[in-house]
Each structure stands twice: as C-alpha cells, then as structure tokens.
Amino acid sequence: MIRNMSKLLRKTKKKKQNQQESKPQDALHQSFNENVEIFRSIYENCSDVVFRPFSIFGKTRAMIIYIDGLSDVEGLDENVLSPLMQETANESQPFNELLENKLPVSNVKKVNLLADCIESISTGNPILLYEGGSDGFSLSLAKWEKRSIEEPAAESGIRGPREGFTESLQVSTAQLRRIIKSPALKIQSMKIGSYTRTTVALAYIEGVADQTLIDEATNRLQRIEIDGILESEYIEALIEDNPYSPFPQIKSTERPDVACANLLEGRIVILVEGTPFTLIAPISFFSLLQSQEDYYQSFMISTFIRWLRYGFFVISLLFPALYVAVTTFHQEMLPQALLLSIAAARETVPFPALVEALMMEITFEALREAGVRLPKQVGSAISIVGALVIGQAAVQAGLVSAPMVIVVAITGIASFMIPSYIMAISVRMLRFPIIFFAGTLGLLGITMGIIAIAIHLCSLRSFGEPYLAPLAPLKGRELKDALWKSPLWKMGTRPHFTGESNVYRQAQGQAPSSKKGGESGN
Amino acid sequence: MEKGKISSLQMAMLMYPTIVATAILSVPGITATYAKQDLWLSPILASLIGFVTVYIAYKLHKLYPEQTVIQFSEQILGQFAGKVLGFLFLFFYIQTTGHMIRAYSEFIVGSFLFKTPISAIIVSMTLLCAFAVHGGLEVVGRVAQLFFPVFVIPIILLILLLIPDFEIGNILPILERGIMPPIKGAIVLSGWFAEFFLIIFLFPFLSDRRKGMKYGMITVVVAMMTLVVVNLVVFFVLGITTASQNYPLMNVSRYISYADFFENLESIVMAVWIIGAFVKASLFYYVTVLGTAQWLNLSDYRPIIWPIGILIVQFSFWSLPSTMALARFDFEAFPLWGLLTQTLIPLFLLLIAVARKRKQTGSKTS
C-alpha cells in the first residue's frame, strides 16, 4: 500500500518536473484559454502576479499579465486598457497590425515563446494575450521603485563628477552612454543565474579594446553556471585569474567617470544588475593605488599625492613589523635619544613587542569593522571606547606602550589612504604574517616576507596582463602613468597591454604655451 | 619546456646582482689580502674573464640558438661524453648554489641573528627561491627587475654617505710592488666573473636576441665598475685593515653618521644583501632545475624543484664543516673550480663545435 503510494507520489513529482522543465521552451499555444491556463499554473501561489481579463473592442477576449509593483499601472490604464476597450474595430486591417497601431506604447515586442513571456513579465513588461493569436505582446511599461542617482559613498572626491552608478542597470548603461556618445561603445548583455536571471552587461569600445580580451571576457562570463548573482563580487570570484591571491585582480568602481576612463584605455567594464559596483578588467597593481582625482588635478600635485600614497602603502604594510623588528632585534639602528624614550615607554609593558603589536592591530581592525557594521546612532560610542579606553586608558594602565599606539594609529591612517577598499583590506591582512616574521627573524623576516609578496605579485596576472606592469616587466613608455603622472598633453599613448590595437589617443604637441594663439594682434 | 620569455634588460638585471651581490661583501677583503692598496685594479683585470666568458657563451648560443649548454654539449661531444659533461655542469651548479646559500646564511648568523640555527635560514631562503623558480623564468626575471632599484639605490646611498670618512691617500703609492699582487687578487675574483657563463642558459629565452650580447657586455662593465668603486670606498675608509675583515662593507657601513639620526645602518646592508642573494640563488636554482630537466629529457621542470631544493640544502652542509672551511674554499678552490667549469670547458666546447661546423660545411661544399 505504502509503496504504491510513494510510487504514485514520485510519478506525480516527475510529471510536475517534466511539465516545468519542458514548458519554457515551448511556443505559445494556439488556444487562448490554454495559454491562460498555462500561465496560471506557472504563477501558481504567486500573489504578486496580476491577471487582468478584458475584451478588445468589446469583442476579442484578452488578458494582461503583469507583476504588481514592477509595471507602470497608470501607463497600463491610460495607454493600453482604455484605447483597446473603447475603440471599435476597423475590420479592413489585420488584427495584429491594428493592435500594434492602436497601442501608444513606445516599445511593443511580439513574443512567441513561453520563456520570452516569462522573461518579459519578470522584468516588469506586461504581456498582452488575445484570443485567436498564437503570440503575445510584450509592452515596455516596466517601472519600479529605484534609488535616485547619488554621490558615490565609497569613492568620494573633491573635484570631479558627483554622480555614481545605481542598482538599476539601465540607468548605469545610460550614464556610460551619456559620457561616451560614440556608437563604438558597445554594451553586450547576457542573463546569468538560473533563478535570479540577473542581467550582466559587458561594455567596451570597439577598436580600442583588444578583440582577444573581449572574447576572453565573454567566454569567462558564459562559463558561469550558478543559481544567482547578487553582487558583482559573485562575477569577480568566478572569472578572476588566480582565486588564491589576497590581491584583487579586478577593480570595482561605482563611478561612471572612472568606468569611462578605463573604457577609453582599452579595458572592459562589466555592469551587473542590482549593484552599483561595476567591474573593470584587466588592471594592474598600480591602478589600484590611483584615484580618479589624480586626473582632475595638476600633474605635479597628482605626482606628489601618488608618491605620498605609495609611501603610505609601504607604511601600512610594514610599519608595525618594522617597529617590532627594531625594538626586538635591531635596537642599535635607533639613535640613542629615541631608543631611550622608547625603552622608557616600554618599561612597564608586560608583553613582548610582537604580542603587543598583534594585540593592538587586531583591536584596531575590530574597531574598524565594528564601525562599518554599526548603526549610525551607536557609532559615537565606538569612537569614544576606541579613543579613551584603548588609547589612553590602556597606556595609563601600563598595558600598552604609547609608541605602539602611535604606530598603530599611523598604520591605520596609512591603510585608509589606499583608494581601493579591497586593496586596503588585503594589505591589512598581509600585515599580520609580516609582523609575525618580524617578531621571529627581525629585518630578515621582513625582507623575506617582502620577497615572498613580490614573487607572488610577479606571477599574478589580470586577464592575462602582468599585474606589476609597467614596472615588471618594465615598459618605459607607461611609467608616465604609474611611477609618476605626466601632464595630460604628454599622455599621448594608451597603455601597452590594453590599448595596443589603437595606440594614440590624442594629437602630439599640445603643450600649452603663451606663444600659441590667443592674442591675434601680435 | 620553458615557455616564458624575458627581455635582454631583464637578463642584465638578473645577472648584475648575481655577480655583484656576493662579491661586494667579501671581495674587498679577499683582494686586499693580495693586492693591498692596489685592490681596485683587480676587478678591472678580472673582468677580462667576464668579457671572454660572455663572448664564448654568445658564440656557442649563435651555433645552437634554441638550446642550452646541457642540450648542445651532447651534439658537440656525442651523447655519452655530452651527458658526462652535462652532469659536471649540473654538479657544479648544485654545489655552487648550496655553497652560496651557506655563505649567505653564515653572514646572517655571524653578523645579526647570533642565536638562530643556521638551518632555519638556509631552509627559508631555499623555500623562497623554490617559490620563485616555480613561477618560471618570467617570474624570476620580473622579480629581479622589481628588486633592481631596491638593490642598487641603497648601495649608491651608502657610498654617498661615506664620503666624509674618505682618506683618499690610502691608495697611494700605486703599484708599489709591481703588477703581480693585483693579478693575484684578480685570479681570486675571476671565479665571480666566470659566473657570467650562466647567461648561456638565458640566451635561448630572450625575446630580443640580437641585444643579448650587448646587454651581457654592459652587465660585465657595470659589475666591474661597481666592484672597483666598492673596493675603493672600502679602502678609502678602512685602509690596510681591509684585508683582515671578513665583510669589509659591513664594517664600513658602521662609519655612517648623518644628522645624528642615520646611524648604524648595517641592517640596511643586510636587507640589500638578502635581496641580492635571493636573486642570485634563484637564478642558480632555476638554471640547475632547468638543466637537470633537460639532462633527464623531462617535459617539465617543476616536479624536480623540490628534490633539487633538498639537494641544495644538503650541499650547503656537506664538505663545509665550518665558516673557516667556507672561507678557505672561497680563497683556494672556488677561483679555479669556477674558472675551469665556466670558462675553460666552454672554451673547449666552442673550439670543438667550430671545428665540427667547419668540417661539416667543408664536406658539404666539396
């Protein structure tokens, strides 16, 4: 008895699965009733799907299917329902054409396949089915609540455009198109994720981006088979070159101007529906240490700030480790006065420098992490606890030496100078093993740590492009935008690895001078 | 087997620390022992060996452009003799790598980390090198390129900061006892310049082969000049006591005092030297691994990185019981041993190869 029952159950289950699997590929049925039945069974238990039956011109039975909240209901009322219900039929024209002419909707697509209908409904475009036709109409009346364009929170600046990408892909691609108006800007989109059906768009400039790069990116994207894409990190994790690396091999940005600058240098941009963070590839180590403002300032200031950033990058990686190594192994390196004051400060501290450094660094990281996740109202509590308890009280209690607090504070500031947040995190993470090396082998340990990181960076690639380019391998021409920042009129060529197919980006000899033009009288 | 390509510039930046890194530390002491105040002449004389070696390597490379010495020695000498010679080369390189890493570790333990067991330092260095070799020639080349300024700039700074302590008169009188003492010093030093033979393992993997010879020669010149300058600087500061120091450059760096803040910078010498030694050891290690794989006709060299690493660690202990034995080997055995395997044997190879080619073309035309 029970066995029979379970068999039966399994059969019905199979049937259901079969139905669901085979259906989406099918074409729409000839019969209107049948079609409505199919849609009703597909959207069973979906309370947000609305079925609106009505008659066209008072004769033909029809049905509009849409998802509540994704479609423009007012537009549907005004532009679809009212004209179709009120007007009377003009028999001379075929019904199909008549319908298309009567609909004051900008984009009406004829759909034949069930899968296309479902796609259209899910994206917010209502489907119009009518009696006597084996096809339906997808009406572009999608409209849902979205965030307005705001200043990007994670990449702010003083000078430069203040708009950032939003979660809506259409708005994002429109922002790109508004900056790069040439039709050479291509945006290919595809759906990824078996359940989320997230739209992922690959943007590049034809003739500037290398064709092999575009093919490679398309290949890598098409290889993805996953249930859902919720953020661009999902894509990044599935297409990067070396997943076992602490360093990001793809840059993310929420600024349209940054995305466009990279497009113009021959890189590709991947936009993902549902997140303002777009992906840029291929990148180099140095592009993660550059900010958009480097290009919006005079080249001398940019070069100075870049060097400051490089310097603090090294500090954020090495400073605590150097402190540990010098105070534990190489005291002779310090001048006597400095050594005495450090020794005096460390006198009461019960821990070795290594433990002290690890303790303070971990506490600082905890403070930072807590600050990010905390509701804004509680935020001030963290800063008070951080400043008073961990800073002042710990030093007064003799648990931590004051120089150590200073070291941690400088390191913390240094790590916030890195423009790319992901890069800053990887540097913070690498700091700990280096502190540990410094505590066991002194300067030798630090040097070995640096060598190990350098070997790793040298073997890393981003979409096939060497990560440390243009420094290793050395490309003299490109140092203009890595080691320093040349004035704009000297940046005549695109980067070697990405812009090789279209080398020159501007005319030569545009250096401004007082002799050129201007005063016509002379 | 090796798919990566490096540029001639990368090759030069690989070769320079390979020769200079170990030389700047101990060579002033060694040459001063023989040449006294004329020690600056020794590198100039010894560099002749460097020029000759690079020339031989380039000529051999011209004859067999796609192969390394392990492969074409079989073609020159026949299979059996070629294999024997190949084994000799490999043995030399494994032994030299081990010896070199041992010297590096002795320096670290003797000057800085007195209580650290030497095996810890040897093993950690070998591991680092293995990591680099695993990435292939491209990675080794890029790392060398990346570290080149890190290696060179501190040396220049060191020299500049030492200027106040110079006693230029130390080198006078010039050639007091004739030309023989500098030549004796040069013979010891020629062991280092013979190491330029490593270049023959890099020539087949250059992306711009025509510049190979030029950059090879430039490297020899720059290395020679560096050694001359370092020898002079050390002797300007230390005078005749240079001869009694194991690592004179270290002692010299203790003289630096600038703005009452930059003092006791020998740790920087150490950091620089670690980087130089790393580049040197990884190039030797890479050449050994590549050569062994070619000698055994393997399709990939990566599987033998690990076993050869163990051999290198072993060789850094075998036959070198103490620092004294190490220093004696440097003085007495290495110059001849290095010169023999890296300059004289290749010279004979070249002569035989040229003779064979002549014979072949002669028989073809007749």
From TrEMBL, chain B:
GO terms for biological process: spore germination. The keyword Iron-sulfur does not apply. The chain crosses the membrane at residues 12-34, 40-60, 80-101, 107-131, 143-163, 183-206, 218-240, 268-292, 304-321, 333-355. Keywords: Germination, Membrane, Transmembrane, Transmembrane helix, Transport. Its main location: membrane. InterPro entries: Spore_GerAB. GO terms for cellular component: membrane. It is a multi-pass membrane protein. It holds the Pfam family Spore_permease. It is found in: Membrane. NCBIfam families: 2A0309. Belongs to the amino acid-polyamine-organocation (APC) superfamily. Spore germination protein (SGP) (TC 2.A.3.9) family. This is GerAB/ArcD/ProY family transporter.
